[in-house]
Amino acid sequence: MSDTTSTVRATPQDFAPPASIGRMRTRAAVVGVVGAVALLVVAAISKNWDLFLRSWLFSYMFWLGPTTGALCLLCLQYTTGGNWGRLGRRIWEAAAGNLWLMVVFWIPIALGLKSLYSWARYATEADAVKDLGPKAIYYLNVKGFWIRGLAFFLVWEIIRRILVSWSKKEEAGQTTPQKFVAIQNLSGFGIVFYAAAITFLSIDLTMSLDPKWWSTVWGMLFMVGQVLTTFCFTLWLLVKLSPTEPVSKVFKTEYLHDFGKLMFAFVVLWAYLSFSQWIIIWSGNLQNEIGFYLNRLNSGWQYFGTILIFAHFVFPFALLLSRNTKRSTSRVAKIALFVMFMRLVDLFWTTAPNFYRGYGNGAQGLQGFGLMDGLMYALCPIAMGGIWLFFFYWNLGKRSLMPVNDPDFGQMMEAEHHG
Question: Model-level pTM greater than 0.85?
Fold first, then answer.
């Protein structure tokens, strides 16, 4: 056997986006427009601004996941390498490119603070301090909410622009391995910043719905959930594009298996963190913290908790244990879509009980969840998702689908060529 192997060279034109991405963009636009119109009709009929904001917040937390989660995975790929990451790099660049859209979607929440958050409704600062303590001065206030949110998105956008700029220069052959060290360092900082920013953002947007409740793993739960959502979306899209060129040129069962293993790992990590939070609060009988679960395990909400145990953990865990399942395009793609839907259910169970209390004074639980509530909660993620996907596919269709001038991309092609 000869030790000399031929070098497989590729150009960006060889991996130009297929026509199917344009069709997917059109379908997303239709879904977004129809969903938005239906949402506006329901909102006009209900004349309930508070209900709109509640469903908007729930939907926002879901679609924020594949946006900031994609930026985190992009930083991770630049930091650690790995061919599976190169396969997803353009997808993550396109998803992170929707950061500006998430800022636009964040504005209604920021403008409707008093409708969503009790800490924003105190008449005076003295009243807030009397009820909430020093946190009302140093953290839970309208000015702090705006400053933190805008600052997080600004830094994320700066990181994204630098990484995408590097990617474009790499595609044009204008980079060197020596210059890549700075990108790796920036990506390492980006991962750390993401962990801190998403922790505080999740506290601002969701934990502060009950300002007297807190959890030390709250930010980690959202980090894991966002990365899991991004893995699922990436895996599903790669499987959808894999039968046709240019993805078929590099897509291999081994990469599908890698994504399946990562999806499995994050399903287990989500379950571990969720159970750890529950068992510590429950076994310690922490009176201030246990209200979170009492609210969600009464008046109908307990059924969602049971569904999450089995559908978000037990079923995916059991299915993804199989090596053959993780290497089957049809089965693993269906599991990925199912887990994404369960992420939506988890966020619903996390946010909605704050507005439809299942325990304590005036508890109604799901009995207070009427037809208009159901329509609003169903239409919001559809409308927001259609708009998000339209701009995602728009971003994805602008460049080649693979980083062809990455120093190690040739090895991917070589392995496929000789495989």
Answer: yes
